[in-house]
């Protein structure tokens, strides 16, 4: 007799919503239309009803006692209901059919005469070892009895890489219980659904262990052309492409004949693979695979045909996720493209020939400081800080607003537009205004930081936010942005202007009175032997690394373990039992309390993490520092540089007379004071936004509890203003999930667009073995290329490698002690990479625009820091 509980996908379609929920019905619709969807089955709503048939009274009693105004009470009562289902749901009869369906899916269906044996073993799965079976996804698919078309997307739980009958059965019960999470209950309450008429189906589907995967659009979202197909592809599981964590290959096909219009070779730095047991692991892509396209012409044509079929079936432009496994193409998901923007891509609009030199400089500056496309919450920070910079140069003329240069639409479409600059009569007054700024002292900065920022940050970091009201957290969030805005105003408007005259005066004096062969680099004069924040932090790191080096047991852990080791255990478990380990831990604790706010991607703070939040990242820095062969000599080298610097300054000053001497001494002190403030402002921003991430994290958890977000981390897909409006009631909380799903999908496109903008000058270099950039630090060095894009790549570096990277920030400093040279896509003589490279005495070529895409991992190159050239050899 046909089961009332198990339905294969080919038995379902869009009309079976009430039977298996939206997810199951959609998969059935795709299968019915003969699309290559991975096999699977649904456990119907009737199965859930049968399992909890004797528990309704208990569930309803708890449900009727919920105080919906108290989040803690919702959480507590939700936990009680889940416990009832997990412990008491009647499951024995149902699990026989579920196990049989799973074994069938695994290709392990028992002979017909063995059903009794299956039934017998299924009631005692915990006592017997079962066949491993297939890796499957176990997903929830909810539906309302009276409103079958209602959406419950993201409210219930899903489980990936589930293997074995017992594990499948356990996760089916977990899905049933997830109907009663606090966020699902709160969502239904807000929507006005009757909890007693909402039920759950479970989808069980084969996982696809893809060799190549990605996304495809049946209309080109980069330029709005309906007649083009855009495909992004990379190796391994498709999550890396969807999340934008790799630079995929990009293909554009003409829809009429599927001919190739354009293709771009991506870096494809990493691939996500499944390990035995079902865990995912991120590994490096071999060089040979990186250097070729991930899809053949035949695969492109096959994929293009699938995309056209999906669009034809749904009668609208579609966004699909796909995968190739053992030569077969699979359709994993299909959804409509919500909006298509007309117009050219960022790459087309920002080609060098179409920009003035000032526009080119401003766009390059944006791409240097923001190397990834900002999420909406980072967009709030980026536009705030960049507006401060624009305000500081407003006297040059009328300049576009930050939100005009970088635009963000409601659906998350991010655009980078050439800035418009028109001189005005105010330009004539610039010299007088600069002179007035040069006479101001730095008191406003010191007072702001000392009296407001540090105590505020310390207070937020010490708070337990769990019981704090949303209104008070929103107020603190607002204060963080207000203080950050003041810091940016001081950093750009006051410090930037105050530095122009003294820097210009020093440069002129050096040119006129110092022989060229003895003349120091101006930035070195400004920063050598100076206690600015990055230098102070680097010295503290060096002292900790020296301590670790001098204690063999501690040193051995750093040298022998890879970087993943430090993220898998508490620091105490790693070091406390070692000789010198407890002293090392005390040193790390003191360091993190003082300097732990240092953050990677500091200019996009809600995409970054500080050392305080993730101490494992700091231990990776120590590991890198221990590979510096001059580690124990660094302090002596710095003292020697300080002495030489002071001797040169005193000698040079002694040779000057009258107003020139006074001008040199005054401006020398001024630029050094300004640099200290410049560094302090960066650390202040890092501190503020570490506190900001803490508050955003808690607010995200509240929105999950209310059913407004799937995951707390998704709060980064709301702008700061939208977060405020959601908690004030001005924006419908129930609209967030759908909007964020659209924005997350768009974010993958934004990342591609952003990288296109960054690499827009590649075409002029692709046929050459030479790459030209800017001189950052003099010298010559040869070595193998190591492409490093973040902390997770630090473990690849070996002594003598050439560090090739999109950018560096202060968290990268210890790497300079182990590499032979630095080549960066961004940066110039004043950038972090240039300053540190000169301190370490290694050559650096910066601002290459395309170094990370031009060179291949492992190939040997020659870096000429004398003229800013890099050669393949």
Can you give me a brief rundown of this structure?
By secondary structure, the chain is of the alpha+beta class.
Task: Provide key terms for this protein.
873 residues; alpha+beta; D-amino Acid Aminotransferase, Chain A, domain 1; 8-stranded mixed sheet; 6-stranded antiparallel sheet; 31 helices; 25 strands
Secondary structure topology:
Layout: E1 6-8, H1 17-32, E2 40-43, H2 45-51, H3 56-64, H4 71-88, H5 92-105, H6 115-122, E3 136-144, E4 158-162, H7 165-178, H8 182-191, E5 198-206, E6 212-217, E7 228-235, H9 239-242, E8 249-254, E9 260-264, E10 270-274, E11 280-284, H10 287-290, H11 297-314, E12 318-325, E13 328-336, H12 346-349, H13 357-369, H14 376-392, E14 398-399, H15 402-405, E15 406-408, E16 414-416, E17 421-422, H16 430-438, H17 443-462, H18 470-513, H19 522-527, H20 533-549, H21 552-560, H22 563-567, H23 571-575, H24 581-595, H25 615-625, H26 634-654, H27 658-705, H28 720-728, H29 736-758, E18 770-772, E19 774-777, E20 780-787, E21 802-805, E22 821-824, H30 832-840, E23 844-846, H31 851-854, E24 860-864, E25 869-872
Parallel strand pairs: 20-21, 21-22, 22-23
Antiparallel strand pairs: 1-2, 2-5, 3-4, 3-5, 6-7, 6-12, 7-8, 8-9, 10-11, 12-13, 14-17, 15-16, 18-25, 19-23, 20-24, 24-25
Task: Describe the 3D structure.
By secondary structure, this protein is α+β, with helices and mostly antiparallel strands. Helices cover 48% and strands 15% of the residues. It has 31 helices and 25 strands. An eight-stranded mixed sheet has the order 18-25-24-20-21-22-23-19. Strands 9-8-7-6-12-13 form a six-stranded antiparallel sheet. Strands 1-2-5-3-4 form a five-stranded antiparallel sheet. About 4% of the residues have low confidence.
């Amino acid at each position: 007799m046909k089961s009332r509980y198990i339905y294969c996908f080919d038995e379902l379609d869009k009309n079976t919503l009430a039977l298996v929920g939206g997810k199951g019905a959609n998969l059935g619709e795709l299968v019915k239309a003969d699309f290559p969807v991975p096999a699977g089955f649904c456990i119907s709503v009737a199965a859930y009803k049968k399992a909890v048939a004797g528990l309704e009274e208990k569930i309803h009693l708890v449900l009727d006692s919920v105080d919906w105004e108290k989040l803690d009470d919702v959480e507590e009562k939700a936990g009680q209901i889940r416990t009832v289902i997990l412990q008491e749901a009647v499951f024995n009869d149902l699990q026989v059919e579920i196990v049989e369906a799973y074994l069938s899916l695994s290709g392990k269906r028992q002979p017909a005469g063995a059903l009794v044996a299956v039934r017998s073993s299924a009631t005692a799965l915990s006592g017997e070892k079962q066949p491993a079976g297939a890796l499957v996804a176990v997903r929830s698919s909810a539906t309302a009895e009276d409103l079958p078309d209602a959406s419950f997307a993201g409210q219930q739980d899903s489980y990936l890489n589930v293997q074995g009958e017992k594990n499948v059965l356990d996760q089916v019960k977990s899905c049933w219980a997830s109907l009663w999470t606090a966020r699902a209950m709160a969502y239904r309450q807000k929507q006005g659904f009757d909890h007693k008429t909402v039920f759950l189906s479970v989808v069980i589907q084969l996982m696809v262990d893809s060799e190549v995967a990605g996304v495809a659009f049946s209309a080109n979202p980069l330029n709005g052309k309906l007649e083009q197909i855009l495909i992004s592809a990379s190796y391994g599981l498709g999550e890396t492409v969807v999340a934008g964590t790799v630079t995929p290959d990009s293909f554009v096909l003409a829809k009429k004949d599927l001919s190739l219009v354009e293709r771009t070779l991506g870096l494809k730095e990493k691939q996500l693979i499944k390990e035995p047991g079902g865990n995912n692991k991120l590994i490096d892509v071999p060089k040979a695979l990186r250097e070729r396209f991930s899809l053949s012409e035949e695969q492109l044509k096959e994929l293009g045909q699938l995309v056209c079929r999906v669009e034809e079936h749904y009668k609208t432009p579609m966004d699909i996720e796909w995968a190739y496994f053992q030569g077969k193409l699979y359709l994993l998901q299909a959804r409509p493209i919500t909006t298509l923007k007309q117009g050219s891509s960022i790459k087309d609009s920002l080609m060098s020939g179409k920009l003035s030199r000032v526009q080119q400089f401003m766009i390059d500056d944006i791409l240097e400081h923001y190397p990834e496309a900002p999420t909406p919450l980072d967009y709030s920070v980026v536009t705030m800080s960049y507006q401060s910079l624009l305000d500081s140069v407003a006297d040059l003329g009328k300049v576009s607003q930050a939100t005009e240069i970088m635009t963000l639409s409601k659906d998350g479409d991010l655009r980078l537009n050439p800035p418009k600059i028109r001189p005005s009569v105010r330009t004539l007054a610039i010299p007088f205004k600069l002179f007035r700024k040069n006479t101001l002292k730095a008191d406003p900065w010191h007072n702001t930081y000392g009296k407001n920022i540090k105590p505020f940050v310390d207070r937020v970091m010490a708070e337990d936010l769990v019981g704090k009201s949303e209104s008070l957290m929103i107020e603190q969030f607002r204060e963080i942005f207000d203080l950050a805005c003041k810091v940016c105003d001081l950093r750009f408007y006051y410090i930037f202007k105050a530095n122009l005259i003294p820097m210009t005066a020093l440069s002129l004096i050096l040119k006129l009175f110092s022989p060229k062969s003895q003349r120091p680099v101006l930035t070195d004069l400004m920063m050598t032997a100076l206690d600015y924040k990055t230098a102070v932090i680097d010295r503290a790191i060096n002292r900790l690394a020296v301590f670790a080096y001098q204690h063999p047991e501690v040193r051995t852990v750093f040298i022998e373990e890879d970087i993943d080791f430090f993220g898998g255990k508490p620091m105490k478990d790693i070091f406390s039992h070692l000789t010198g380990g407890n002293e090392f831990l005390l040193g790390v604790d003191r360091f993190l309390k003082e300097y732990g706010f240092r953050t990677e991607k500091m200019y996009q703070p809600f995409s970054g993490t500080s050392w305080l939040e993730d101490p494992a990242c700091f231990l990776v820095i120590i590991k890198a520092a221990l590979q510096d062969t001059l580690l124990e000599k660094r302090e002596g080298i710095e003292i020697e540089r300080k002495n030489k610097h002071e001797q040169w300054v005193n000698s040079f000053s002694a040779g000057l007379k009258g107003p020139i001497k006074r001008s040199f001494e005054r401006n020398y002190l001024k630029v050094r004071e300004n640099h200290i403030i410049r560094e302090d402002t960066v650390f202040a921003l890092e501190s503020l936004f570490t506190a900001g991430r803490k508050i955003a994290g808690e607010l995200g958890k509240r929105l999950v509890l209310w059913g407004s977000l799937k995951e707390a981390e998704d709060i980064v897909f709301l702008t700061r203003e939208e977060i405020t409006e959601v908690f004030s009631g001005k924006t419908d909380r129930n609209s967030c999930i759908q909007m964020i799903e659209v924005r997350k999908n768009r974010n993958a496109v934004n990342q591609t667009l952003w990288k296109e903008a960054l690499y827009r000058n590649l075409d002029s270099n692709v046929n050459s073995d030479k790459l030209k950039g800017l001189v950052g630090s003099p010298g010559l060095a040869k070595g193998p290329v190591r492409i490093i894009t973040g902390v997770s790549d630090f473990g690849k570096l070996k002594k003598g490698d050439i560090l090739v990277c999109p950018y560096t920030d202060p968290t990268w400093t210890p790497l300079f002690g182990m590499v032979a040279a630095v080549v960066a896509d961004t940066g110039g003589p004043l950038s972090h990479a240039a300053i540190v490279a000169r301190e370490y005495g290694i050559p650096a070529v910066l601002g290459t625009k395309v170094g990370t895409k031009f060179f291949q991992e492992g190939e040997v190159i020659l870096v000429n820091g004398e003229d800013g050239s890099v050669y393949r050899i």
